[in-house]
Each structure stands twice: as structure tokens, then as C-alpha cells.
Amino acid sequence: MEAIIELEGIQKSFGDNTVLKDVNLTVNKGENVVVLGKSGQGKSVTIKCIVGLLTQDAGSLKVLGEEVKDLGEDELKELRTKVGFLFQSGALYDSMTVKENLAFPLQRVLKIRDESEISSRTMEVLEAVGLQDAIDKMPSDLSGGMRKRMGLARTLIVRPEIILYDEPTTGLDSITSREISQLILDIQKKYNTTSIIITHDMSCARITANRIVIMNEGKFIAEGSYEELEKSDDEFIRSFFN
Ligand SMILES: Nc1ncnc2c1ncn2[C@@H]1O[C@H](COP(=O)(O)OP(=O)(O)OP(=O)(O)O)[C@@H](O)[C@H]1O
Ligand SMILES: [Mg+2]
Predict the structure, then answer these.
(1) Which of 23, 24, 123, 160 has the most crowded CB, counting CB atoms within 10 A?
(2) Which UniProt keywords apply (predicted)?
(3) CB 79 within 8 A of CB 109
(4) How far is the CA of 196 from the centre of ligand 1 (A)?
């Protein structure tokens, strides 16, 4: 098994608020790891450290074999083309159509100029997320679920090796949540991506996880499959599954 993301002894504080005390996690190639944890435990801070938006105070954090804190600006940029980060809001450009929103990262990040390649990759990702009919729509004309799909399409179009999902189903009805969860699973299978999925949605966790880790008070306190953790002897761990 090839380790794609490796966190060892990660610590992170903001002033006197120690958020991450000792975070250890290895994610292997092609694996979907779901992170559970109560609000404010440091889940989002952990994935922000992975993409280099935040830097840990101590510990080693390697992505695709590279120690992220040692990367220069250009190397960090290069790494970010391999790591897709799905923000909760989808972060779409409201003045651009769906098609333009998708072409933008190809032109800007990957410097692709060939119109036919842009067009074929746009169609491919729209098909992958089931949004072919929305190609000429403005983001403001999309529903919440469609915006999530669109955010996913925009993450996918640069073909990242790693996708980090921060609460991909929050704010969606249960049917749409299930569709998005299924989509996350389909993407893993189709592109062999490696993912970390932060969620409070247990149906999303059940559908997408190869492995679940539980974060509490700045550490991972448990790991296992959905079925294993659901039957844990520890009442706190079981409480996530009720
Ligand atoms: N940039 C920052 N500056 C200062 N404090 C921060 C910053 N980012 C996060 N924190 C603090 O770190 C702690 C953990 O935040 P984080 O966003 O990781 O929680 P979370 O586990 O993702 O919670 P939720 O499930 O509610 O999203 C919180 O106390 C938060 O206030
Ligand atoms: Mg969070």
C-alpha cells in the first residue's frame, strides 16, 4: 500500500487555544477515509494543514511524499493542482456560467489553451456529476444540491489525485445527500482518487467510507470500519452511530 497522506504528531494552537494535540493519520492510495467528530474538534483545521492553508506548529505532514511545510511557493502551487479541496460553499464565480466556471481552472491552473480539450473535459465532468443540462446556467440559477455537484465538477476537472471534502452534504435533503455521497464513491472508483471526507452525516459516512476515524480533543481516538465502530464497547464512539 502506498501512503499518500501522512500525518505524524501534528500539533496546532491558535494563541492559547490548543486545537490539535497529537494527530496521526495515514491515508493510502485509493482510500476514502471519513473523519467524524463533534463541532470544534479540529477537523477542518487538519485538512487546512494538509493543503497548506495553515501550518502546524509541530509534527510531520507529508502529501504525496513531500513535507508540506518545507515547500516553496511554486512547489506548493504545484502540489495544490494535485489536491482538490471541496469547500462547503462550492466557491463558484457568480458572474460566470457553469461552462466558464469549469474552463477557468483549466486555463488558469493547468494553462490549457486547446478549446476542444477544454470542451471535452467540461463535458466529461458535467456528465460525471449529472449536470449536462446546466452547462449554460449561471450559478445563481442552481439549487443547493446542484451547486454542490458543480463544486465537485470544478474540483474534478483538474483531475486531482487527492480530494478533501469538508462536509459535502451539509444543508442538503436526505435524498440529495445520498446522491452526493454516491457520487463521491463513484469518483473514487472511476478516478482512483484518495480522499478525506469530513462529515456529520452518518449516511454519507456509511456510503463513502473505507475507514472511519474519530477526532476528539485534538486527537484521533478511534478508527475502524463503520460496522466495527458502530458495535464499539466505548459508549462515546457508539454515540456517533445512534
Ligand atoms: N484561523 C483560525 N484562527 C483561530 N482559531 C481558529 C482558526 N481556525 C480554527 N480555529 C479554531 O480551531 C478550533 C477547531 O476548529 P475547526 O474548524 O477545525 O473545527 P471542526 O472540527 O471542523 O468543527 P465543525 O464540525 O463545527 O466544522 C475551533 O476552536 C476554532 O475556533
Ligand atoms: Mg469544520
Answers:
(1) 23
(2) ATP-binding, Nucleotide-binding, Transport
(3) no
(4) 17
